[in-house]
Design goal:
alpha/beta, Rossmann fold, Aminopeptidase, 3 domains, seven-stranded mixed sheet, five-stranded parallel sheet, 12 helices, binds iron/sulfur cluster
Length: 414
């Protein structure tokens, strides 16, 4: 059987494209190749890869994962950072990805190659065709330039993406395109905060991985998204006489303007109030992040500091810096099993700021343990997004279903 290598850029573009290819070329074997070192940050790359794996498995298509040689890609586009989309940087980017694909096509004995980039509504068909033909001919491979966007193909692609609850990115992929498109807001996409903060790429990836696992186990799944106001620390710290004081920032704290140098003006129990910009310091026995029971109505810049630093803070002036950001975000609840199940078990999908949370293995073991009951509709498991910031996933689920899950919090996050 003749083989066709299909370079895959992302799952939304791949699903409809691969289905159409298969219908039009029933006698050819399709091999997927995910080769996209242009995608930044790495969490976004993993997210798109995960959804591509899910899509290929659904279609029964073999998938090969390429290298994430992001440094080579960055070197290739050096000097073209300011180019607009569809400009010279994109031509270089296509050549880079498609040349590697053509090389693999040759090695695998494929006589033809193509790319799901041809499905992307924002790309220039002619620019892609030119690039694909140029690089594939070098390796003696044909380039199949099919335009499946026409005749309602794009609409069908969006419909299938929605129906299959596939992650839909909101930028092409690279840091340069992202900065050009989102300006200052691109920081939110690029900075990794560690752990799996509510509504982050890391939280989404975790949920998607568990979903792929469940599907492999033959368990039904459904995702429900919900919006919320998210919050992140961009920069922060406390110092006394230039010595850094170990601290955490309380969730939903507001920013401090510039750098503040202030004295403690009031002490109420374990809380020290500084005399500038409403800064407060809560002294705690052990420095660890605490789950928020609900989003606080007041949002003073608030630091958590070990009790052992009380005297130091009271004796000298305190320097404080805090830059935080608030933004509309989306999180999700993954329902594993049937909503009609008698028992509903909930598990948090996000982590606390100090990265404590449930591990992938913990969730998988729990699913394995309850697999029989999930299949017989006795139990359903809910993976709850944004749990540690006011139990938002749980509250959202309760609102739309009228049912309350029993939430399991593992020992390490109590
Ligand atoms: S905008 Fe997209 S196609 Fe263009 S260089 Fe960036 S990742 Fe590549």
């Amino acid at each position: 059987m003749e083989k066709v290598l299909v370079h895959i850029c992302c799952a939304p573009d791949a699903l409809y494209f691969l289905e159409r290819l298969r219908k039009e070329y029933p006698n050819k074997e399709l091999i997927g190749f995910f080769y996209d070192p242009n995608i930044h940050p790495y969490e976004e790359y993993l997210l798109r890869l995960e959804e591509t794996k899910r899509t290929c498995r659904k279609l029964g298509i073999k998938l090969i994962e390429g290298e994430y040689d992001v440094e080579d890609w960055l070197v290739k586009v050096k000097g073209l950072e300011r180019e607009p989309e569809r400009g010279e940087r994109c031509s270089v980017c296509f050549d880079f990805r498609l040349e590697r694909s053509a090389k693999l096509a040759k090695e695998l004995g494929c006589d033809t190659m193509t790319t799901t980039l041809l499905m992307s509504p924002k790309k220039s068909f002619n620019q892609l065709k030119e690039s694909g033909e140029k690089v594939s001919h070098k390796y003696g491979v044909n380039f199949l330039a099919v335009d499946y966007r026409k005749g309602g193909g794009t609409q069908e692609m969006f419909r299938l993406t929605k129906e299959n609850q596939i992650y839909q990115q909101d930028y092409c992929g690279c840091i340069h395109g992202l900065v050009n498109q989102k300006g200052e807001n691109s920081l939110w996409d690029m900075v990794s905060f560690g752990g799996r903060p509510a509504g982050s790429k890391e939280e989404t990836l975790f949920i998607k991985r568990i979903r792929t696992f469940c599907e492999g186990e033959g368990l039904g799944t459904q995702e429900i998204e919900f919006p919320f106001l998210s919050w992140r620390v961009l920069e922060g710290g406390l110092w006394v006489k230039k010595e850094p004081i170990p601290s955490l920032v309380a969730p939903y704290s507001q920013s401090i303007r510039g750098k503040v140098r202030a004295d403690v003006e009031r002490v109420v129990g374990n809380t020290l109030y500084l005399n500038k910009q409403f800064v407060r310091i809560k002294l705690v026995e052990e420095l660890k992040d605490l789950p928020l029971e609900s989003i606080p109505p007041t949002t003073n810049p608030t630091f958590l500091v070990p009790e052992s630093y009380r005297e130091k803070l009271l004796k000298s002036r305190v320097d404080a810096v805090l830059k935080t950001a608030f933004r509309e975000a989306v999180s999700r609840v993954l329902i594993i099993g049937s909503l009609q199940a008698k028992n509903l078990l909930g598990i948090p999908a996000d982590t606390l700021q100090d990265h404590r949370g449930v591990s992938e293995d913990f969730v998988k073991e729990l699913i394995e343990e309850h697999k029989k009951d999930i299949l017989t509709q006795k139990t359903a498991i809910l993976l709850l997004g944004a749990h540690f910031v006011g139990k938002l996933g749980q509250k959202f689920f309760e609102e739309i279903s009228g049912r309350s899950p029993e939430v399991l919090i593992p020992q390490n996050v109590r």
